[in-house]
Amino acid sequence: MMGGSGAESAVMSKWPLHIGCAAGFSGDRTDAAGPVVRTLARLEGRRVLMFETLAERTLALAQLARRADPAAGYEPLLDDMLRPVIADCLTNGIAIVGNFGAANPPGAASHILAMARELGLPAPRVAVVKGDDLSGAEHRGTLAAALGEEVRDLVSANAYVGAEPIAAALDAGAQVVVCGRVADPSLAVGPIVAHYGWAADDWDRLGRATMAGHLLECGAQVTGGYFADPGMKDVAGMHELGFPILEIDSGGDCIVGKAAGTGGVVDARTVKEQLLYEIHDPAAYLTPDVAADISDAEVRETGTHRVALTGVRGHARPETLKVTVCHEGGWQAEGEISYAGPGAEGRARLAADVLRRRLDGLAVRVDLIGAVSLFADDAGELLARTSPRDLRDVRVRVAARHDDRREAQRLAREVLALYTCGPAGGGGVRTSVTPRLETRSCFVPRARVHASWEMAA
Amino acid sequence: MSTAVPLYRLAHARTGDKGDRSNISVIAYRAADFEVLVAQVTEARVAEMFAHRHPASVKRYVLPKLGAMNFVIDGVLDGGVNGSLNLDAHGKSLAFLLLEMPIQLPGGEE
After folding, report:
1. A227 in helix, strand or coil?
2. I want to staple A224 with a disulfide (CB 3.0 to 4.6 A). Which of A202, A264, B58, B106 is the partner?
3. For residue range A170-216, what is the model confidence (pLDDT) as tens digits?
């Protein structure tokens, strides 16, 4: 059913291609994939299910996990994500593509093969994409050149690989493609290119495929998630949001829909918000595959929960690949305590003043949650010009960073001590001291990254 | 005579982040309002809304076919997910700071 003989591919490529998203990040709901797969199973033609589970630091954390245990380092929730749908995908010929390989794609592949065995399924053809990991000694020179300096305390370094190895693996008959770091839209571009057989320099089509992937890659963000604003933008059924399913035609244009029988909404508003999400210059959205151009794109509702995206173009892909480098970055301490009732804001402000004096020498950020917090700056400028308003429920939060764990811990201890040494009625202390990871981006020449794929044994 | 309404009543917005850079889309609810928004939601006025964050730059891209603008604001996240001590290090909430901007509507209409 996948790849296979030339004649079979020619017939398949005339059929529509549908791609559904099962996960938009590693903390996503794990019960949304079921409805997507049930909807895909009823459709004709080629169907693919994609999982996007790698934020910037997820990979660094995965690398730390692998250091502690060489068998670990792939998505810890792989079982929760895949077990509910893998049988239906395999029996219905729905290919699975995901970056849940994280820091250990071969480990994830083994896990998936074991899962299939346990479920009594015939062994699937599982491909592993490699080459994104640049943390080895052999790459230090490349990284140093790209960063302009040596990297100390390196935790991870991963290049954003593109669609080509994914497309090649699917062409060769892979039923599951396990990736580490790839550009998120490439998770869709790979299957699209495999299905339609476009050339690697078909920039306009690749641009369109990339934007289809961009609409899919954040799961419910295009179907009513990260969207509702009661009275302005109402969304029904948020407890059972349907994840997106896109239909992509042979020109690369797409129609956005969602899983059948689910909550949420797909309309011009949701599609526009996701289309522009994390975009900078709309004429040059750079990925390893292409420079996509949405400056002339149009979004048009064509039915209930059906939106067409047209007018997308593409230009030559960049000569370099982006690399995310992660290194250890000391400790972050946070502490909070709440006050309520008459005089609450005055007591909260007093507690903040006391903490500033006790933590003299530490660069502390202060928030008054309920008065001013999310919009404020670390240095305290916005707080300084926010006058008291006699609020009746205020949570003081202080946070600081330090290379030395004991110094960071001082903050936590001082907040806790406010129970007996602070203003009246202070309650609900919570503190945390956590290790920090710092990430930086750099760009390396393509020739330095050897992305490839192979079937897992 | 004109009325001032918050941008919140005329447009919706979404934040994305990459490092210390935030992008905020501003999408008109009604096509008829787009011209007024383009005239008033300028780089300079956006920079003012975020002045306490001392952004390095504000760049606006206009997408007339979408009735939308995209603002790219550099250095506005106190270092972002890496550096910031903010509860909301990603700046996900900042779309709603931008939407507080007062917009003058001509002729007292809403």
Report:
1. coil
2. A264
3. 999 999 999 999 999 999 999 999 999 999 999 999 999 999 999 99
Note whether A301 and A32 are within 8 A (CB). no
Cα four-point dihedral sign A288, A290, A296, A297 = negative
Q: What gap in Å lies between CA B24 and CA A90, rounded to an integer?
A: 40
Interface test with A, best of B17, B52, B94 (most A CBs within 10 A): B52
pLDDT < 70 stretches in chain A: 1-14
Q: Quick one: tokens of A439? A: 């990430």
Which pLDDT value is given to residue B82? 80
Helix (H, G, I), strand (E, B) or coil at A240: helix
Rg (CA), chain B: 14
Is A105 in contact with A454 (CB distance < 8 Å)? no
Sign of CA dihedral A318, A452, A78, A174: positive
Asked if A276 lies within 8 A of B72 by C-beta distance, the reply is no
Set of chain A residues whose Cβ sits within 8 Å of the Cβ of B81: 56-57, 439
A401 neighbors A434 (Cβ within 8 angstroms) = no
Q: Which residues of A touch B87 (CB under 8 A)?
A: 367, 369, 373-374, 397
Type of residue at A38: R
In this prediction, residue A3 carries a pLDDT of 42
The helix (run of H) or strand (run of E) holding residue A314 is: strand A313-315
Q: ipTM value of the model?
A: 0.97
For residue A438, give both structure tokens.
């710092």
Cβ–Cβ below 8 Å for A269 and B66:
no
Instruction: Report pLDDT digits (tens) over A107-160.
Output: 999 999 999 999 999 999 999 999 999 999 999 999 999 999 988 889 999 999
- Find residue A49's DSSP bridge partners: A20, A96
Given A233, A378, A440, which is nearest B12 (Cβ)? Answer: A233
Residue in this structure with the two tokens 């309404």, named with its chain if needed:
B5
HSE (CB half, 13 Å, CA atoms) of A223?
Answer: 34
pLDDT at A318: 98
Inter-chain residue contact A375 with B94, CB threshold 8 Å = yes
CB within 8 Å: B85 and A378: yes
The shortest CB-CB distance from B66 to any of A57, A272, A369 is to A272
**Burial of B93 per CB tally in 10 Å (0-12, 13-18, 19+):** middle
